[in-house]
Write a structure and sequence with these properties.
237 residues, seven-stranded parallel beta sheet, 6 helices, 43% helix
């Protein structure tokens, strides 16, 4: 997918953080971008902040509901007639010792982080077959490195990595490329964090956007199916 001008991308959880940063980079490359989130006003504000109103579509969708994602894809196809790139980015995190982790927090992570990427794929896969497009999940280094207080989050991100790698094998027969990106520390709003100058050592959302562009521009014969990315100098914090 070396020619990106006017290609169409859909980014879940695109109103802030990584999703917003990726959307900005794709727009700069000449793409059209739909972003979604649960609160339409928040997503509309993010779309206004991105500018280029004719190339941005704000959608209210809760990835825990397949029907919402199916409706989101219909909106995209109704507006632009195609869908070329999907970034399943929406995610949540709750961290506590496993014996203290609440059932509500466990289920919210499973529903959003794991069920959500499945719902997004199911809703977009036929459009991606038509475009021979690209499906990308936003996992985490927590999908390969377990840590104390992370049982629920680890479980979902390990699941995302496994799901994406198996989906890659299933979908390549349709010339759909599938990758998972596994970042370490990112300066984002994840888990109600407010980015500041103290986060300058971390990966920045626009860096993930550049990585997505690198994937899209790579010769189609080559597929980086699992990408780990981490801060270069965490000791500078």
């Amino acid at each position: 997918m070396t020619e990106l001008k006017n290609k169409v991308a859909y980014i879940t959880g695109g109103s802030k953080g990584i999703g917003f940063g990726v959307a900005a980079q794709l727009l700069r490359a000449g793409m059209r971008v739909a972003i979604s989130g649960r609160n339409l006003k928040t997503v509309q504000k993010a779309a206004n902040d991105l500018g280029a109103s004719d190339k941005v579509l704000a959608i209210a969708s809760d990835v825990t509901k397949h029907g919402d994602e199916a409706a989101a894809v219909k909106s995209i196809l109704d507006k632009w007639g195609q869908l070329d790139v999907v970034l399943a980015n929406a995610g949540v995190g709750h961290f506590a010792p496993v014996d203290e982790l609440s059932e509500d927090d466990w289920h919210q992570m499973v529903d959003t982080n794991l069920n959500g990427v499945f719902h997004t794929l199911k809703a977009t896969v036929e459009a991606l077959k038509a475009s021979k497009g690209y499906y990308i999940t936003l996992a985490s280094l927590a999908g390969t490195n377990f840590f104390a207080n992370g049982a629920g989050y680890n479980a979902t991100k390990f699941g995302v990595v496994g799901f994406t790698q198996a989906a890659m094998l299933d979908l390549r027969q349709y010339d759909i490329k599938v990758s998972t990106i596994m970042p370490g520390s990112v300066a984002s709003h994840f888990n109600d964090h407010e980015p500041s100058e103290a986060d300058a050592w971390k990966i920045q959302p626009e860096d993930i956007g550049e990585l997505v562009l690198d994937l899209l521009r790579m010769n189609p014969r080559t597929l980086p199916s699992k990408i780990e990315v981490r801060p270069t100098r965490p000791d500078l914090k």
